[in-house]
Design a protein that fits this description.
This protein has about 400 residues and is of the alpha/beta class. The protein is built from 13 helices and 14 strands. It has two domains: about 240 residues, 3-Layer(aba) Sandwich (Aspartate Aminotransferase, domain 2); about 120 residues, Alpha-Beta Complex (Aspartate Aminotransferase, domain 1), CATH 3.90.1150.10. The strands form three sheets. The chain has a seven-stranded mixed β-sheet, sandwiched between helices. A four-stranded antiparallel β-sheet has the order 10-12-14-13. Strands 7-6-11 form a three-stranded antiparallel β-sheet, with no helix packed on it. The longest helix has about 35 residues. The radius of gyration is 22 Å and the shape is globular. It binds pyridoxal-5'-phosphate (PLP). The site of pyridoxal-5'-phosphate (PLP) has 14 residues, from helix 3 and helix 4.
């Protein structure tokens, strides 16, 4: 069976976690601080704050930019449900806009029309690792003086040409960037998340909120030669990462450049093979973007049945997934008023398929996926059956 994804974990991660366990300090402590420093250095952000997952990162980011009851947050429906859930956990309401014509990210041209007096923030998603058109997004945001949160759950190691050169996703172009280290992403700590920002006031808030709004951290109290009492100036959350996770994360970060290199190699291999295949089109990468290809999303041409295709692949031992979900099509968010039609989002979910991609995949395994996919495309072609029904 070839799975859709596989985390890149090994002995280095096991040893790092073992050392933390042997040290006796397993909750948020020196390894978390070390991971944050490494992550800030890697991305080029001034500050990095580790949290329990990307959903808690999004919650804190939205609170940080001031989303409160009655506020609106402009975002895409075509993304993981945590986006809308966290907007609503702040008391806000998402305003869904559609995605771009040629890809799976927000269409920047639709942002301006969605701005109202109640707009507090724009939440953009670097979907499947592909950077958004941040230049166009920031033009609208700066013009309207609206905060921007980047959901980079999938985009660690991706790069974008911005200003004078290439920069890694995570050096904020807006206000805050949120990452996930779930095993389905490009590097993992089991569960885990990170907030990056250049704004020290925001970073201070994140650090306070993630540990119950407590003024003194466990580590500083532990290290103090004097008796100190903490206090609780604000209401907070328990969104901490453990030191075991952080130690694993530091090893993962060292592997990241090699992981991304191999993923890009495999994505290029997909692109070349798909050029000669009938029935499916490869995803596009803009000249100003370098994706980590967290997921490889192929668009199906008319006449190819999505479910039949996925079943035919599964029958041959190759996993696949349908396109990214749409939040407005799920019961949990069906009460969000739709101000704009979302035809591209709906087509993207139902007319695309994710193919397996992970750094350890060999060329031989990749060839297997390609030949199974190519055969499945033929099996999944539907017009014959439709003609038959019409004939009856
Ligand atoms: C995975 C994902 C999340 C949630 O990340 P967790 O770490 O599992 O909370 C949020 N947004 C997007 C776009 C994702 O892909």
């Amino acid at each position: 069976m070839i799975p859709i994804a596989k985390p890149c974990l090994g002995l280095l991660e096991a040893k790092a976690a073992e050392q933390v366990i042997a040290s006796g300090w397993v909750s948020q402590g020196p390894q978390v601080a070390g991971f944050e420093a490494d992550f800030a250095a890697f991305t080029g952000a001034k500050h990095a704050c580790a949290v329990s997952n990307c959903t808690s990162a999004l919650h804190l980011a939205l609170l940080g930019v001031g989303v409160r009851p009655g506020d609106e947050v402009i975002t895409v429906s075509h993304s993981f449900i945590a986006g809308a859930n966290t907007v609503r956990q702040c008391g806000g309401m998402p305003v869904f806009v559609d995605i771009e014509a040629g890809g799976y990210n927000v269409d920047p041209d639709q942002l301006a029309a969605a701005v109202s007096r109640r707009t507090r923030a724009i939440l953009v998603v670097h979907q499947m690792g592909m950077p958004c058109d941040m230049r166009a997004i920031m033009q609208v945001a700066n013009h309207e003086r609206i905060a921007v949160v980047e959901d980079a759950a999938c985009a660690v190691g991706s790069e974008i040409q911005f200003g004078s050169g290439w920069r890694r996703i995570g050096r904020p172009m807006g206000d805050v960037v949120c990452f996930s280290f779930h095993p389905r992403k490009v590097i993992t700590t089991g569960e885990g998340g990170m907030l990056t920002t250049d704004n020290v006031v925001l970073d201070d808030k994140f650090r306070l909120w993630r540990q119950h709004g407590m003024s003194v951290s466990d580590t500083s109290r532990h290290a103090s030669a004097q008796v100190i009492f903490e206090d609780y100036p604000v209401q907070g959350y328990n969104y901490r990462m453990t030191d075991m996770q952080a130690a694993i994360g530091r090893e993962q970060l060292k592997r990241l450049p090699d992981i991304v290199r191999r993923r890009r190699e495999l994505a290029n291999r997909y692109r070349l093979a798909l050029q000669d295949m009938d029935g499916a089109r490869p995803p596009a990468e803009p000249v100003w973007a370098r994706s980590n290809w967290q997921s490889y999303c192929v668009r199906l041409e008319d006449g190819i049945d999505q479910v039949a295709l996925m079943q035919a692949m599964l029958d041959q031992g190759v996993a696949s997934r349908r396109g990214i979900m749409n939040m407005h099509q799920e019961d949990a968010q069906r009460d969000v008023p739709l101000a704009f039609p979302l035809p591209r989002s709906e087509a993207a979910r139902d007319r695309s398929v994710l193919l397996p991609l992970y750094a350890q995949m060999t060329d031989e395994e990749h060839d297997t996926v390609l030949s199974v996919f190519s055969d499945a495309l033929k099996t999944a072609r539907q017009p014959a059956r439709i003609n038959l029904v019409q004939a009856v």
